[in-house]
Amino acid sequence: MPSGQPVFPRRVPDAYIAMRGLVVASLLILLVGGTDAFRICAFNAHRLTLTKVIKESVMDTLVQILARCDIMVLQEVVDSSQNTVLFLLQKLQSSKSYSFLNSSLLGRSTYKEKYVYIYRSDKTQVLNFYQYNDTEDIFAREPFVAQFTLPSKILPSVVLVPLHTTPKDVEKELNALYDVFLDVSQRWQNENVILLGDFNADCASLAKKRLNSLLLRTKAGFHWVIPDGEDTTVRASTNCTYDRIVMHGQGCQKLLKAAATFDFPRRFQLTEEEALRVSDHYPVEVELNKAAQGIPPHCLSTLLLLSLSQLG
């Protein structure tokens, strides 16, 4: 090139710039959002009434517990009206969108309770629900089954089957829970089912030998993700795995990230006495990835750098 002539930089095509931006954006989404999980919880809230939740210390703790979960299944809600749940939703709504779905009051005596789903309505929606038709009256509180959407292409929906057993009939009710699974999986053609709640499946209510003979233990495909021996009770004097989560279906297994109890007294620095005002149970929870376990974050970082160098 003759000296003295101006040198103009080569113009990068718009399509090239757009492609580079798309690659970077896609990888950043995977890198930042890949670890985001969807949390499903179950909590025996121990005779939950409006009188109980309007106590400030109880309400604050309950709201913090509920706010951790994308779907929470509450048990032992004994309020015949909707006031208790509406009060909790009012406190939750300050930062996020929530809705709820509840069963009727259930029970054989004057004592009755209901199942209540509280869920993030900006992240999931109810597709279907029904009260299991317990024609033989096996359950004291028959499951209130619901199907929810999930933010996952691998598993677009999941079925939740909550159960709070009565201690004297634990084995009978848990074996009948297998029939509920068959009913719902055939009804909605969906075998990705999570059974969860206060099963009373330990200690004096169910000996280990009887536990291992349950249909949900002997039939293939069921995974008890809260391990035996995990204490789900608040009192220091007890050590029982009453509360459980049982998962079925390949989609659930592919997306499973973690399952655990939530020790809310330790997290919120409560004494045992303070915690017992909320409940004598810990919540149990399962986390589902939005995509199947794939590229680890450190590999995504490397892939991002390589892509930038190739496009640069």
Description:
The protein has 312 residues and is α+β, with helices and mostly antiparallel strands. The chain has one domain (38-288): Endonuclease/exonuclease/phosphatase (Deoxyribonuclease I, Chain A, 4-Layer Sandwich), CATH 3.60.10.10. Helices cover 33% and strands 24% of the residues. The strands form two sheets. Strands 3-4-2-1-12-11 form a six-stranded mixed sheet. β6 and β7 (157-162) form a beta hairpin. Mean pLDDT is 89; it is low at 22-34. Belongs to the DNase I family.
- Multimerization state: single chain
What is the N-to-C order of secondary-structure elements (H for helix, E for strand)?
A: HEHHEHEEEEEHEHHEEHEHHEH
- Helix/strand-derived category reads alpha+beta
Whole-number mean pLDDT: 89
Kindly state the percentage of residues in helix: 25-40%
CATH superfamily, by name, is Endonuclease/exonuclease/phosphatase
- Using only CA atoms, what is the Rg? 24 Å
| CATH level-two architecture | 4-Layer Sandwich
Number of domains: 1
Estimated share of beta-strand residues: 15-25%
Strand and helix map with partners:
Layout (H helix, E strand, L loop, with lengths): L13 H20 L3 E12 L1 H4 L2 H12 L3 E7 L5 H10 L5 E5 L11 E7 L5 E6 L12 E6 L7 E6 L7 H19 L4 E6 L9 H5 L2 H4 L3 E3 L18 E6 L1 H6 E6 L2 H4 L4 H5 L7 E6 L7 H15 L1
Parallel strand pairs: 1-2, 7-8
Antiparallel strand pairs: 1-12, 2-4, 3-4, 5-6, 6-7, 8-10, 9-10, 11-12
Helix pairs in contact: 1-11
Keywords: Disulfide bond, Endonuclease, Endoplasmic reticulum, Glycoprotein, Hydrolase, Nuclease, Signal
EC number: 3.1.21.-
GO cellular component, one term: nucleus
